[in-house]
Write a structure and sequence with these properties.
The protein is an alpha/beta fold. The chain has helices at residues 25-42, 60-75, 95-109, 118-122, 126-133, 138-157, 168-181, 184-189, 212-222, 237-252, 255-266, 294-303, 314-322, and strands spanning 14-15, 22-23, 51-55, 81-88, 113-117, 161-163, 194-196, 202-204, 279-280, 287-288. The chain starts with 13 loop residues before the first strand and ends in a 21-residue tail after the last helix. The chain binds adenosine-5'-triphosphate (ATP). Residues 55-57, 59-62, 86-87, 89, 146, 164-166, 170 line the site of adenosine-5'-triphosphate.
Length: 343
């Protein structure tokens, strides 16, 4: 390859997927880290002196996130403390292996690690849920439970922020998905770099503008240890379509990813559109747009032998629950997410 475009005197070893610049390794690291730093400072993501839980799956995004945050904290004196928070969904041959990677990250980056499991929080592992529901709708359970589990973990650790490794591709995919579904409520909030989990601990996305391809390159050239196997259960089909579409568009012009994010950020929801109002779940207290939150409904279905209960339309679900004696979410087993003492 030719000379580094930054004229540092080194040979370029890569072409940046985001900008097309030909860079040497050091200049790429510098550019990547400076952009994440810019994202953090522009959005005032963290207050100095705070504690941040990094949601760590062992995958490339959260591994790079933990590593870069540590670098930037030292370089720019953010005065932050970090912890790793992992959710063990109970997926044999996938999460058990990736958690070993997270433990390695814990040692390498000197960040304390907390692991919470679905089994302890909800009484079910994903392996058990899949044996009930099959492979078709299992992502619904996993996504809903993980979101709540991360919030519970952040509360348990008493951190000031929860940082996730969502990258630019993830956000652009979500914008596309919400447009395709006509989901205005989600469309209006999916590009936010800071979101409120409902329990007062903000969720932040420092890699919001980092391209997935660059995250992989950064991890590769830094020789970071991460887990790259796909989940053994079926992927979310709808997101899969948005993903394929985005990858095709990226081939035509990589800046399409940023353009989609910026378009999503600029969208204003028409005031006449009906938006759900948020309240607290009457069972577990978690923030929800319905009387009973999605996690409690899914759990109700599992515990009452009707695992598809939470999969359909919410109006049908409500009717079905009202027709049943549903005073106890977990059938009295004491393992449902109404039991806050579990964490
Ligand atoms: N089991 C988990 N425990 C803790 N955090 C998680 C877990 N799964 C996902 N996350 C968080 O949510 C983010 C987005 O998750 P997603 O499932 O989209 O994974 P991904 O894009 O493959 O990211 P990664 O490469 O970090 O696994 C992750 O970067 C991580 O911060």
């Amino acid at each position: 390859m030719s000379d580094c475009s930054r004229k540092c005197g080194n040979n370029a070893v890569l072409r940046r997927p985001k900008t097309g610049d030909k860079l040497c390794k050091e200049c790429f690291f510098d550019a990547f880290e400076n952009e994440v730093h810019f994202t953090i400072t522009e959005a005032k993501l963290f207050k100095p002196g705070s504690t941040v839980a990094v949601a760590a799956s062992g995958g490339k995004d959260s591994t790079v996130l933990a590593y870069v945050l540590k670098q930037l904290n030292r370089r720019f004196k953010y005065d932050l403390k970090f912890m790793l928070l992992s959710i063990d969904e109970g997926i044999t041959g996938y999460r058990d292996d990736s958690l070993e990677t997270v433990k390695q990250n814990r040692d390498d980056y000197e960040m304390p690690l907390k692991i919470l499991s679905y089994k302890d929080l909800y009484g079910w592992t994903m392996d058990e849920i899949v044996s009930e529901i099959g492979r078709k709708n299992n992502c619904t359970f996993c996504g809903v439970f993980r979101r709540q589990a991360l919030d519970r973990g952040a509360n348990l650790l008493k951190v000031d922020y929860l940082a996730t490794g969502h990258n630019a591709d993830d956000i652009a995919e979500t914008v596309l998905m919400n447009i395709l579904r006509g989901d205005l409520a989600r469309l209006s909030r999916c590009t936010s770099i800071i979101t409120d989990s409902g329990d007062g601990i903000p969720r932040v996305k420092p890699l919001k503008y980092a391209y997935e391809k660059e995250i992989v390159m950064y991890a590769y050239f830094k020789k970071l240890v991460y887990f790259s196997t796909e989940c053994v259960f079926s992927p979310n089909a709808y997101r899969g379509h948005a993903r394929v579409l985005l990858k095709d568009l990226e081939k035509i012009d990589p800046s399409i990813i940023m353009n989609i994010i910026h378009s999503g950020e600029s969208l204003k929801v028409n005031k006449t559109s009906k938006m759900p109002s948020l309240q607290n779940c009457v069972r577990c207290g978690y923030v929800s747009s319905q009387d009973i939150c999605k996690a409690c409904i899914l759990l109700e279905g599992l515990n009452s032998g009707r695992p598809k209960l939470g999969i359909g339309k919410s109006s049908k679900v409500k009717k079905s629950i009202e027709n049943k004696d549903d005073k106890v979410c977990c059938g009295g087993a004491g393992q449902c997410n109404t039991d806050k003492t579990l964490i």
